[in-house]
């Protein structure tokens, strides 16, 4: 029987083992998409206990605990919740997560950051809890040292257009901070004209820009100002969350009228909403192209499906689900408008519904002509509910079948936790296992020079080149 989580975890062939240990394992991690708080890097935060760093904002674990019958007061709880009790409930839940990546991630994090290889279950919870907390007292477990020891030279956070980016400024001005932290532009609140918060957000944006936003022309001016500001702060990427791809073309007069209705808080039709979002995406895509940014689009999520829990806890607490796939024609149409307009930016496309992978891969290749960038349109890594072992395998297989896998920009963290960098190890082992199997099954040449270089490129080099990072 193979030992659990040994040095050849997930690596079943000699070729896979060689590719991982000699190539993948040594490559730095570029965290080009995550949801960590830059304030914690600026202040070099140290965590008071393992519950805070591990369970404080991890809706992956929260969902599993709810499925195991844990009461909400022991999951998200309150300021009075006993942190050990929450940890204990996770220890009770974890053994039930057989086949779930949470099982592997948990033990990778325990082993990598705490040197713990014991089995985490209810009977061992207190011992492991105390051991982790003792380790967290050490300076090596401050946020910056966790990042440094994880071999992460660059992080892109996720930031609202009206954010002051004060913590990014503090980090950039601090010579003791060894990691480069760049903002990423996330303008969902500016795009979601159908939400009741839109008028209020326009007031806030106007306050930041120094003028009232009363017309669509004002709005475009404000968006350009904020993109220019982010660019000055080193931004290299944007990110957009769509329910589904959109492609409803409007004239300037029509979109201005829709904007006026949204600003007044009036009800909008679905066509008006999709038309505004389409024109919004075209507007910002042109600006991204100007600054050579990467435009990321995530879609296929149905958010906050439980009204009761949304009202109790708010968004991003584990009540979003995989949505329907499709709308490939709208996605292709949108990219076609970018192309015909002369401003197709570098793009990464992610669908939460894994059955969109093949459509995205073929759309990406359809817009590859005459580009000065290899694989200008990327099928993004297995995202959110798909960053399982089988989800990553499917994404890699789909991209290999229909695209050029050697140009892939690799894994993202997409996490709120500084202990999540082991997800890159998980991905890299799966990648090397795939390559190793192809070689040993006689489906690819035993060309270790080319294979090793390709592994290193997917793990690191392609990302640096694609985004234009200075590391």
Helix and strand arrangement:
Blueprint (H helix, E strand, L loop, with lengths): L13 H9 L7 E2 L6 H5 L7 H6 L3 H9 L15 H11 L7 H14 L10 H12 L6 H7 L4 E3 L9 H7 L7 E3 L5 H4 L6 H12 L6 H17 L4 E6 L9 H12 L6 H22 L2 E6 L1 E2 L4 H7 L7 E2 L5 H13 L5 E6 L5 H10 L10 E3 L9 H14 L19 H19 L7 H20 L4
Strand content: 5-15%
| Average pLDDT for all residues | 97
Largest beta-sheet details: 4 strands, parallel
Order of helices and strands, N to C? HEHHHHHHHEHEHHHEHHEEHEHEHEHHH
Name given to the CATH homologous superfamily of the largest domain: Metal-dependent hydrolases
Percentage of residues in helical conformation: 40-55%
Low-confidence stretches: none
Describe this structure in words.
The chain has 471 residues and is of the alpha/beta class. The chain folds into two domains: 46-141, uronate isomerase, domain 2, chain A (Orthogonal Bundle), CATH 1.10.2020; 145-420, TIM Barrel, CATH 3.20.20. The chain has 20 helices and nine strands. Helix 1 (14-22) packs across helix 20, helix 11 (198-209) crosses helix 12 and helix 18 crosses helix 19 (422-440).
Describe the structure concisely for a colleague.
The chain is an alpha/beta fold and 471 residues long. It folds into 2 domains: 46-141, uronate isomerase, domain 2, chain A (Orthogonal Bundle); 145-420, Metal-dependent hydrolases (TIM Barrel, Alpha-Beta Barrel), CATH 3.20.20.140. It is built from 20 helices and 9 strands.
């Amino acid at each position: 029987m193979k030992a659990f989580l040994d040095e050849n975890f997930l690596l079943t062939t000699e070729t896979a083992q060689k590719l991982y240990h000699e190539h993948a394992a040594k490559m730095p991690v570029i965290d080009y998409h995550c949801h960590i708080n830059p304030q914690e890097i600026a202040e070099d935060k140290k965590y008071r206990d393992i519950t805070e760093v591990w369970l404080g904002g991890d809706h992956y674990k929260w969902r599993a605990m709810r499925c195991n019958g844990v009461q909400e007061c022991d999951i998200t709880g309150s300021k009075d919740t006993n942190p050990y009790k929450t940890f204990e409930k996770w220890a009770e839940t974890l053994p039930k997560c057989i086949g779930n990546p949470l099982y592997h991630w948990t033990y990778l994090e325990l082993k990598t950051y705490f040197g713990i290889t014991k089995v985490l279950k209810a009977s061992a919870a207190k011992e492991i809890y105390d051991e982790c907390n003792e380790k967290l007292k050490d300076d090596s477990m401050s946020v910056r040292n966790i990042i440094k020891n994880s071999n992460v030279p660059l992080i892109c956070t996720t930031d609202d257009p009206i954010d002051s980016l004060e913590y990014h400024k503090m980090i950039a001005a601090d010579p003791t901070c060894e990691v480069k932290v760049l903002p990423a532009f996330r303008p969902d609140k500016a795009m979601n004209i159908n939400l009741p918060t839109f008028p209020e957000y326009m007031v806030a944006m106007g306050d930041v820009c120094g003028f009232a936003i009363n017309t669509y022309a004002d709005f475009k001016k404000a968006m350009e100002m904020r993109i220019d500001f982010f660019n000055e702060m080193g931004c290299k990427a944007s990110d957009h969350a769509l329910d589904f791809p959109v492609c409803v073309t409007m004239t300037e007069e029509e979109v201005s009228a829709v904007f006026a209705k949204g600003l007044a808080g009036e009800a909008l039709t679905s066509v008006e909403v999709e038309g505004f979002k389409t024109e919004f995406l075209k507007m910002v895509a042109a600006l991204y192209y100007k600054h050579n940014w990467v435009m990321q689009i995530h879609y296929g999520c149905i958010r906050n499906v439980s009204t009761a829990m949304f009202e109790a806890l708010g968004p991003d607490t584990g009540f979003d689900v995989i949505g329907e796939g499709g709308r490939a024609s709208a996605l292709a149409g949108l990219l076609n408008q970018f192309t015909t307009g002369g401003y197709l930016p570098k793009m990464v496309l992610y669908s939460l519904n894994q059955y969109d992978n093949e459509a995205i891969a073929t759309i990406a290749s359809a817009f590859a002509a005459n580009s000065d960038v290899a694989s200008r349109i990327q099928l993004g890594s297995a995202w959110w509910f798909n960053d399982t072992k089988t989800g990553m395998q499917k994404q890699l297989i789909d991209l290999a079948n229909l695209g050029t896998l050697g140009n892939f920009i690799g894994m993202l963290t997409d996490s709120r936790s500084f202990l999540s960098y082991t997800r890159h190890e998980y991905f890299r082992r799966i990648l090397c296992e795939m390559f190793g199997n192809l070689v040993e099954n006689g489906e690819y040449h035993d060309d270790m020079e080319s294979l090793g270089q390709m592994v290193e490129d997917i793990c690191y080099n392609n990302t640096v080149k694609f985004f234009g990072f200075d590391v």
